[in-house]
Model the fold of this input.
Amino acid sequence: MQKIVVLAKQVPDTANITGNAMKEDGTVNRAALPAIFNPEDLNALEMALTIKDKIGGEVIVITMGPPKAAEILKHSLYMGADRVMLITDRKFAAADTLATSYVLAETIKQIGNVDLVLAGRQAIDGDTAQVGPQVADKIGFNQITYVSALKEFNDNYLIVERDGEVQTEVIKTGYPALLTITSQVNTPRYPNCRRMLQYFRADLRENFSDSDKLAAEANVWVIPTLSLDNLKLDEDRCGLKGSPTKVHKIKSIMLKGGDLKIYGTGQTDIKQLVRDIMKVYVEVN
Amino acid sequence: MKSIVFIEKNPVTGKLRNVSIELTHKAYTLSNPLKGEVVGVFAGDALPGNSDELFRFGMSRLLYFIDARLKHLHSIAFKHIFVEMIRSEEPDIVLFGATHTGRDIAPLIASSLKTGLTADCTQLYIKDYKDKGKILYQVRPAFGGNILATIITPDHRPMMASVREGVMLLPEERLNHPVKMEPFTIDFDESWVKSEFLSVIPKVKKVDFGSANIIISGGAGVGSAENFRLIRDLANALKGEVGASRAAVDFGFAEKDHQIGQTGSVVRPKLYIACGISGQIQHRAGMEESQKIIAINKDSEAPIFNIAHMGIVGDLNEIIPVMLRYLKEEG
Ligand SMILES: Cc1cc2nc3c(=O)[nH]c(=O)nc-3n(C[C@H](O)[C@H](O)[C@H](O)COP(=O)(O)OP(=O)(O)OC[C@H]3O[C@@H](n4cnc5c(N)ncnc54)[C@H](O)[C@@H]3O)c2cc1C
Ligand SMILES: Nc1ncnc2c1ncn2[C@@H]1O[C@H](COP(=O)(O)O)[C@@H](O)[C@H]1O
Done:
């Protein structure tokens, strides 16, 4: 195994949305939402580390996002990633899946000698499940989506289970390949204490004071960043410009009021409810 | 406005998946008023047993490619075939079922065609947009279901979208389009086959929401796996199907197949009885189109009451046994 690239994204924690998460105008108040490691990307990283632990290989975690996304890269280092990269540029903003996959695919090509790419099945902010396959298309790798178990692997092939809707498929693929991983695959490991001590200062170069920079470089605490220019990307294919889909409008979901008939909890009330249910029941059967 | 619909069959039964029929009809309602046709595209080891059905929902032609190697989901092969089919037809709109197969292939195709794809749409309609003429408006939930976003693809063709099964409704009336099956020719390149399918294990399907008129669902409020028996008993008494909220599934009260909502099934029964379910947005996304909704919840402020037609505020442990007794009496 040469290199394994894990695609990871920092996402707002949509499972714990609180009252102030929506602004008055119905748009999302990102600042009010805690940002987390996209859950299924942790499963992808865990799978990469499992493979590396057994047959070797270099695990590289990459993310495209704002500087704050370096937090998940630091977490990846704690878990055991060998290398991380933040792909960041203002010109990447408002990218849809086509533009995102272009940037990620170009990065993977430039990393070179990549045998395996692992992505989460989907990110919980958009739930599109498109970025993984679209990267696979652009780098010309075989693709297996909805991977629900890792059965066997070695330097020549791997065997996984794919969670189809009506069937489970046991699939063997050689390299290179891109897999998208569901949460059924494994339980992500906790950060390693020794690695936490080693990397707790890891950060972006710009966040070190001049006096610390040398020490940071020497101790590989600097999280490398790549920009549009570094990667020599085509600006027309990045960010808003490179995104065929546009958000036309957004509205927060309001409850619609129904014509509610409330029954009491006394025996006669429940009897009436049952009668009313039976009325509907007779109508439908 | 010409539409293409990705036609899929259930690999276990060999029949059309419902979502393919639903999308054929949806495409017809989008294309027909604008004098456009609906073309189906299919690739596989054999045609779906009942493909004629599609012509009764507005499809005018079905392009198909049959090859034994397509028995399994060789994503790269399917991509090449559908990309060729789409290029030859030059449609404005391409619709996919958001199934595990559709979600595997559609993004590959959108990437190859360098166009936009909007996942899991809940509404699709056509309207003018600035100086671009008529385009497809694609409404989908985002941010864990807390917002509804309307997405457009103003400058690229085709405009691609996926829709989950059960979201688009079927009409009562049937159409009578002549059956036009058109074999498609393409040189199948052996290098497109990159995976080896060692075995395929059918999942035993325990839940059938599609044909259920009545669904009785339990949530976290049911309290325990043993207590969930109350929900099953009520379902038995009413000859309905058992549903569950995600919390009930997460707590192990019911199996994942029963989950209803944004990440479960989308259902529209004639009668939906929600027991001990608060009615969070993600659950409602899967059931709020039900014709009649009954809620049993001890919290009168629970959001489920905002969409219910009938409700009881009380403890389901007391209410359901009484219901069961009266149901028996009523026969
Ligand atoms: C991205 C995402 C996707 C999701 N997808 C889904 C999905 O597909 N489906 C889904 O259901 N959820 C989904 N959820 C979770 C959803 O947000 C809620 O957490 C979930 O629906 C809550 O389930 P519940 O109503 O059973 O539990 P709770 O919200 O805990 O509500 C339990 C209810 O039971 C009532 N109760 C308690 N005891 C009794 C009693 N003895 N008698 C009567 N009533 C009682 C309480 O008053 C309360 O209203 C999703 C969340 C996210 C973030
Ligand atoms: N900006 C990003 N940077 C790195 N990986 C990403 C990014 N966006 C999406 N991904 C990967 O693609 C998967 C699917 O994302 P999505 O298509 O947005 O549901 C995620 O689980 C990640 O593995």
Remarks:
- The two ends of chain B are 53 Å apart (CA to CA).
